[in-house]
Amino acid sequence: MADYFKGNTEYFPGIKKISYEGPKSDNPLAFKYYDPEKTVGGKKMKDHLRFAVAYWHSFCADGSDPFGSATHVHPWTADASSPMEAAEHKLDAAFEFFTKLGAEYYCFHDRDMAPEGSSPAESEKNLMAIVAKAKERQKATGVNLLWGTANMFNHPRFMNGAATNPEFKVVALAASQIKTAIDATIELGGEGYTFWGGREGYMSLLNTDLKREKDHLAMILTMARDYARGRGFKGMFYIEPKPMEPSKHQYDFDVETVAGFLRHYGLDKDFRMNIEANHAELAGHDFFHELETAASMGLFGSVDANRGDPMNGWDTDQFPTSYTETALAMYAILRAGGFTTGGLNFDAKIRRNSVDPADLFEAHIGGMDAFAAGLIAAQRMIDDGKLSGFVKQRYASFDSGEGAKFEKGGMSLQELAALGTVYGNAGITSGKQERLENIVNQYLLNL
Active site located where (predicted)? Predict the structure, then answer.
């Protein structure tokens, strides 16, 4: 990977390319567990993990919140004479960051890359102008686009939804924005395209035709798929589940809900899940659960890597630091076959009071180390086979005899009930949950 900042304005001066120094290093700007060339399970770490940087949080977020103004001052916008010049400076800062961090992918919303114009035509012109420059920087550095998406939740026109808006004109404007974002993704060689329905839901059922809105959402997704495929796009489409916030109820509530939606509308062959840890928590699940659920249905695709605050029922988008959580996540991902077009996108932001340029690097380093450590532990879990062996034994009664006959659908309810009358007292067998949790800790403590 080439350094982009050489010969250009350096927005992160004094920070050199981040390198692996091992777990004994006390250098905050060095990896402790992420060694990109290290082989784990026959595959390089960087190829297992496919780290991506989220353009929006890293280069657009300014630290503001509902109770306070911006605290992050971005040098890449300070000396710009126009919004488009600021967008190009931001692009330079982003590629400097990618190459210094050693991340091989990034993800973006259309409005992260380029400012919205006074008309859809001007917005498209702005985006494609920056896309042309991004394409040059990708070629110069070897950094690639993991996936693109459209921001259809910030603008006031989308306050009642985008694809699910009750006004047809807004639906048409949403389609225009999706088309342009798909064009941008294709032009940049993106490996996927993501839909997050931040406003695709309702605040009150009293003013909502729920069936009609979901039909419209499915229609837009179908049209988007057909358009992209017609343009030769062979990548995967992702739905990112989230239960609420900003809407009271979003139609992409969780993995199970989205799976039912996709299958109902015949979209499950082209769409997979982009699973976010913080969204899983807001839905009342954990990250491991949502990954396992998607994998069990063949719908696992990609990951937005972050965490929430268990004491705060809000989408806090913090960087992942729990090695237990990342180990279980990587265990699920590896058993699902690993990433193909997806990866680990850090949809996470530094805190409002983290105002030093180095903080953005340290946050990503910590997240990358957490998933690298999780990968090592997860591979040990798989190689050792204790966890999978226990599960196999727990369900062994379905592998032969009457249990196998039942599982294959070769038994009527009367036959099954007749067997139940003779089995008597059964089911008092320990699940050994505590033992299994202790085993996971053993893998983690032997990094």
Answer: 109, 112
Catalytic site includes residue 3: no
Q: What is the dihedral of CA 216, 221, 224, 227, to 10 degrees?
A: -90
Count of alpha carbons within 13 Å of 70, Cβ hemisphere only?
Answer: 6
pTM: 0.95
Q: Is 209 marked as binding a ligand?
A: no
Q: Which of 35, 112, 254, 369 is catalytic?
A: 112
Tokens of 383: 């190689």
Other CB atoms within a 10 A radius of the CB of residue 236 amount to 19
User: Is 286 annotated to bind ligand?
Assistant: no
Residue pLDDT, tens place only, 250-303: 999 999 999 999 999 999 999 999 999 999 999 999 999 999 999 999 999 999
| Total residues belonging to the chain | 447
Angstrom distances, CA of residue 229 to CA of 123, 173, 192, 221 = 23, 21, 12, 12
Rounded Cα distance, 22 and 368, in Å: 13
**pLDDT 10s digits, 85-125:** 999 999 999 999 999 999 999 999 999 999 999 999 999 99
Per DSSP, what are the bridge partners of residue 20? 31
In the chain, what are the domains? Answer: 19-384 (3.20.20.150), 400-444 (no CATH)
Q: Determine contact, residues 150/197, Cβ cutoff 8 Å.
A: no
Asked if residue 215 belongs to a known ligand binding site, the reply is no
- Out of 48, 57, 74, 109, the active site residue is 109
- Examine the residue annotation and report whether 109 is marked as an active-site residue of this protein: yes
State the Rg of the chain over Cα: 24
User: Collapsing DSSP states into helix, strand and coil, what is residue 250?
Assistant: strand
Nearest partner of 94 among 123, 74, 79, judged by Cα: 74
- CA separation for the pair 79, 58 (Å, rounded): 19
Q: Is 332 helix (H, G, I), strand (E, B) or coil?
A: helix
